[in-house]
Amino acid sequence: MTQESIALRATGITKSYGPVKALRGVELELRSGEVTALMGENGAGKSTLLKILNGDFRPDEGELSIDGMPVDFGDPSDARAAGLRVIAQEPEIIAAVSVAENIFVGNLGSVGYNRTALLRRTRDELERWGFHRTIRAEALGSELSPAQRQIVEIMRAVVSRPRIICFDEPTSSLGDEEVTLLFALIRQLQAEGIAVGYVSHRMAEIFQLADRITVLRDGAFVGTKLVADTDHDELVRMMVGRDLSQFFHRDPAPLGEIVLELRGVGNQFVDGVDLTVRAGEVVGIAGLVGAGRSELMKTIAGDYPTTSGEILVSGQARRIRQPSDSIRAGIGFAPEERKAEALLLQRSVRDNAALVVLRSLSRWIFVNNRAERALAQEYIDRLRIRTPSAEQLVGNLSGGNQQKVVLARWLATKPKILLLDEPTRGIDVGAKSEIYAIIDELAHQGVAVIVVSSELPEVLGVSDRIYVMAAGRISGELPRSEASEERILALAMDEDVAA
Ligand SMILES: Nc1ncnc2c1ncn2[C@@H]1O[C@H](COP(=O)(O)OP(=O)(O)OP(=O)(O)O)[C@@H](O)[C@H]1O
Ligand SMILES: [Mg+2]
């Protein structure tokens, strides 16, 4: 590789947040026409590095250069002017205006304010990058799904034809179909000679996409490897500093009575759902995005009332019309959108971890119970939540560590029935295997667990039995011994059910 192909170089980057050293002498090179993955455990400093590249703040020490010329970004507009775009993990979408206006916000000069021309240009761009079937140029910001919001954020960057684009966990809110589109887009960016930086915790994605991988650990630079010269185990060692088994396999517990039973449950999202979970059983729910998996969890948790059928807990029909009803029935629910729904960002890690479910409409109240806090602390240690102290505000933790705080609380609560929606999304490889071990432990203690996951190896690894959903219905049920990725996918795409 010649020097000229290095579009961006960061050397000796150091950054502290008060006493927290988020980055210590980090090196990164992004080459034109290549994808460089940035990996590391939750809190390793990946997002902090991208924020520096975006000009959100300057590093305390270190230099950035573009095409060999030193640059100094005082704010994001400097980074943009230099041809560098960082795709934010949480897109800022203006609700009241169209997709077209959202995409060209800040770029209107190049199109003028002619609405017809703007829409036409937007349609051309959406088509050029393969998103025209996914998003309409006229749709309002407020109508967009999380995945569509992410795509608008990406389009906003590509229409300015940058030379360097960095993505921070772009697939965490995308479904399989949108992931396929995103990968196609990244390959197109690559073919046009753009340098791509890519943060993800998903190993399979990295091996599919990346040419090179740079690993950070505890804010320090560990090394950069060509994908062709490394493998899963070596990357895990670089990230975690120790060996981990490739994938967790559950040790099935003896099954008890049926604790949760759904008979023909239906509402505006799901239809005729029959399902059982026994004490000590881990039931997986697989399906494509939009199949109704999260909606089913929210129905059981009382967020969406049922309009037909029954929910039975330990053989007794329960009226579950609101969250407090499900909490009273012994159902714990860790939703997919953990940050928005479950965390108090302005409270400490300790307060958040000590939040315990009681009979309250607001779902949470504080309990000053030492034993409970000690228990929460145990989970914090096990999940390796990276925080300077238990008094740190949760809002200052890295994204993945916030996820861990919510899960720690649920895993420590030991309800009779535990619903986990995408429990390892955004969580690093070390904590993932620890979460599987805790699920296994809870099952051995007699908890009935449901795990919703889009990662097939995860569903296959943790579940005793798997239900597959398509179009709001259960399209099939597979015992662990008969389940495979192929069989799950066949049921997930079940045309009869979808019709
Ligand atoms: N605003 C802030 N105030 C204080 N500490 C912060 C702040 N933002 C980040 N940190 C700390 O800096 C460190 C690096 O965080 P960063 O968000 O860069 O991690 P990350 O590698 O992106 O992790 P994740 O995989 O969880 O997204 C963490 O220890 C985090 O708690
Ligand atoms: Mg991050």
Instruction: Output the CATH topology of the largest domain.
Output: Rossmann fold
- CATH-wise, what's the superfamily of the largest domain? P-loop containing nucleotide triphosphate hydrolases
| Distance N to C terminus | 53 Å
Chemical compounds bound to the protein: adenosine-5'-triphosphate, magnesium ion
Cα radius of gyration in angstroms: 23 Å
Give the overall average pLDDT. Answer: 86
User: According to CATH, what is the class of the largest domain?
Assistant: Alpha Beta
- Residues in helix, %: 25-40%
Give the percentage of residues in beta strands.
25-35%
Low-confidence stretches: 356-367
The computed structural class is: alpha/beta
Number of domains: 2
Large-scale geometry? globular
